[in-house]
Structure formats: C-alpha cells, structure tokens
Amino acid sequence: MTNGRPASSRVLAPQLVIGLLLLAAGVVLLLDNFGVLHAYRVLRLWPVGLIFIGLAMVAQAQRAAGRVGGLFWVFIGTWLLLGNLGVLRLEIWDLWPVPMVIAGAYLIWQAVHGPDKPADREQESTFSALAVMGGVGRKINSPDFRGGEATALLGGVKIDLQDAGITAPEAVVDVFAFWGGIEMTVPEGWTVVNRVVPVLGGADDRTRPSADLAAKRLVIRGICIMGGVEIKSA
Fold first, then answer.
1. Which one of 7, 15, 16, 168 counts the least CB within 10 Å of its CB?
2. Which pTM does this prediction carry?
3. What CA–CA distances, in Å, run from 102 to 68, 72, 142, 148, 161?
C-alpha cells in the first residue's frame, strides 16, 4: 500500500509509455508512406521514449533499487539521443564502466542516507533487491506480503516467497532486468498475473494456475531487456 492506496492501483507507467511509443511510431511510418513527412527526422528522436520510461520507473519506484533501474534508462536514452543528434559520439564498449558507477553510487547513497526504512507495519511486508554484476537473494516469510521491487543489471536476483502470505486482494512486484535474470518462487495455489514486457528477452511463468477464484493474486510487472524473468511454484 502506498499513501493509503493499494499498490495495484498505480498505473503501470512504463508499459503505457511503450504502448504510446509503438502507436506513435506506427503513425509516423504510415504518414511517411503517404509522403506527408519524412519518418527519419522524427524516428531519430526515439531515445526520448527511453528517457520517459526511465522517469516513469523512478516516479513509481518505492525503494532505491527501483529508482536505480529508472535512472539507468534515463542515462542510456540521453546518450543515444545525443548520438542521434550528432552532439556526442561514443562506441557501445565505452559504456562498460557504467554498472560500476551505478553500484558505487548506490552504495554511497545507502551509506549516507541509510537503507530504505518502510513504516513498521510494512517492515517485513515488502522487499527491495538490487543486483549489479553479482547475485542477490531474498526470502520473504511475512503473512502480510504486499509487494516489492527487483532490479538486475548484469546480475541475478532470487526471491523466495514460499512461506509468505497475502491478506490484501493482491500484491504487486515491479521488476527490471537488463542483461540479467530475476527468479521468483511462489507458494502453490497463488494466481500469478504476468505483465512483464520482454524486449529481446523472456518472461516465463511456470506456475500451476489455481482453479480457486479466491486464490491469492500476485502481479508481476516491469521490463526485461536481453535478460530473463522466471516465476515458478514451490
């Protein structure tokens, strides 16, 4: 719950932005076919979409891990946009230190501000996991699980919810994977709603669907680029 509202009530802004980008690109290409405009002049600005996706992720993030994923896309979008406009020229391999910068900045943030501290009532009901060029594991056993955030940048995140329970109508987990993987294990009988958008990657739901209409509902949403998200039953 965020500011008195269930997590599920938040609009999945990154998916909305992606949908609008696809719609806009289709319209531009259609107009180009009819000779109304030159598609290249407009489509070269496509990295602006990545910037908006990143800003949307930052806006909806509840923990530092989610904000890191959003800022990553703001940086990548800005870099690509400057390249398309001829302002900056870089090779892709020039960016290999970026994950180190992100990891260092995240550690400094935690050292200065301390770890995220949710309200007492939510102390064990949510989680935040960030993996940069490494692996992170979280085991959640709260009977009142409400959701969380998992971010994997060239690394892996494993979330174990086998001993968790959901008392609200549903719980929401936001994921972001770039050249990394996120694996989640959920209890038998939970209903999983997979809303992950894969781009050159995969989002695999291996859970066994429950026929119980009153089954606990877990919503997994986010973006997976050149990586993988896997949800499986215990």
1. 16
2. 0.60
3. 7, 8, 30, 20, 28
